[in-house]
Amino acid sequence: MSRVLYIINNLDIGGAERHLQQVLPRLFAHGFSPSVYTISYKGELATRFEEAGVPVLAPPFAETLRHWPKLLGRPLLVVGSAVRLWLLLWTLRPRIVHFFLPHAYVFGGFVSLFYWGARRIMSRRSLNNYQQRYPVTGKLECLLHPFMNAVLGNSRRVCQQLAEEGIPKTSLGLIYNGLDLSVFKAVREPNAVRAELGINADALVIVLVANLIFYKGHTDLLNALALIRDELPSGWRMVCVGRDTGIGGELKQQAIKLGIDEHVLWLGERTDAIDWLGASDIGLLTSHEEGFSNSILEGMACGLPMVVTDVGGNPEAVVDGENGFTVPSRNPEALSQVILKLAQDLELRKSMGAKGRQRVHKLFGIDRCVDLYAALYKTIATHKNVVVAEVVEDHM
């Protein structure tokens, strides 16, 4: 089997990490042997990778060093991680090294330049807005781009930005996220899920699955709900699922000031997010920036009409007026109007939800996604000069 080494920050719960969790075990059937190197520490999902037969490797003493004072622990971790990765490359001798997320790309990309046996692939899974906050990272990424055999985006908009950064068309490809649709057959009975939090079976439930990060637009959402709180059906609930990264207290105070706190439920990070999607009536994603969101696809797979902002790849999943609505980001007024439209029209919710489920089954299944990765890997592993555009199709 051809070895593929994936380099990522860690395997805590996140979109890229969950994406790899679905993809990597399926690559064995295509003749590839995947393994993962986490440049900081293993993370919560590492055990699931290992149970699926995918080795996860981390820097020496990573768990210890991450709890040391930063001024001491961080430099030791960086040096140890670089040395471990360099030794790992020469020991495993992977045919392909695949980088996910900016920090891992910069760190692992430069280390990999001292290993001459592999083809290199970078996957970007978000818009490059982060380069405005971290301009050095952006400059380092551009220095690494010419050394990549292929660069992948997970939406047309991401690919457009990569082209603007100088990636030639022949090296640029698009692979959308894919879902294992079989897991949605095991979604729990909606009323049982609702009963856990005392939500009535006939209540209107709106759901947002996104970590509490400023650019996910929770503030816009709360302002939108406040505008229509008296027009929504009595007993409505807004369920927010996601890890608090530090702004949870501010958001809860905002909900109190707006007078909607009794309607908003903050569930934190959950392993049963799909169950809550299945128990809801309307799905949301209100981001200011996005690559291509798994939570949108998961909502569609659960038959939800989706209301999303028109950023990144969101409009590539949700066709405005067909399986949901797209609205401008940072626009609570526009957001409130489409939420209200769906809240007051059960048949529209059903129709859009059904079309969304059909769309995700047709275009975003995990098997198609894995087939595209495998086709690219096989071509890159066996040919020196590869035209990625001929291997990674834009299948929208």
Give an overview in words.
Helix 4 (about 70-90) packs across helix 5 (about 100-110), helix 10 runs parallel beside helix 11 (about 250-260) and helix 13 (about 295-300) crosses helix 16. This protein has 2 domains: about 1-180 and about 365-390, Rossmann fold (3-Layer(aba) Sandwich); about 185-365, Rossmann fold (3-Layer(aba) Sandwich). With about 400 residues, the protein is of the alpha/beta class. It has 17 helices and 13 strands. The model has no long low-confidence stretch (mean pLDDT about 95).
Terminal CA distance reads 31 Å
**Quick one: overall form?**
globular
What are the segments in which pLDDT stays under 50 over at least 5 consecutive residues? none
Oligomer: single chain
The H-and-E topology, N to C, reads as: EHEHEHHEHEHHEHEHEHEHEHEHEHEHHH
Rg measurement, Å: 22 Å
Largest sheet data: 7 strands, parallel
Mean pLDDT: 93
Helix content: 40-55%
Number of strands: 13
Q: Give me the side-by-side strand order of the main sheet.
A: 3-2-1-4-5-6-7
Strand proportion: 15-25%
CATH topology of the largest domain: Rossmann fold
CATH C-level class of the largest domain? Alpha Beta
By CATH's scheme, which homologous superfamily of the largest domain applies?
Glycogen Phosphorylase B
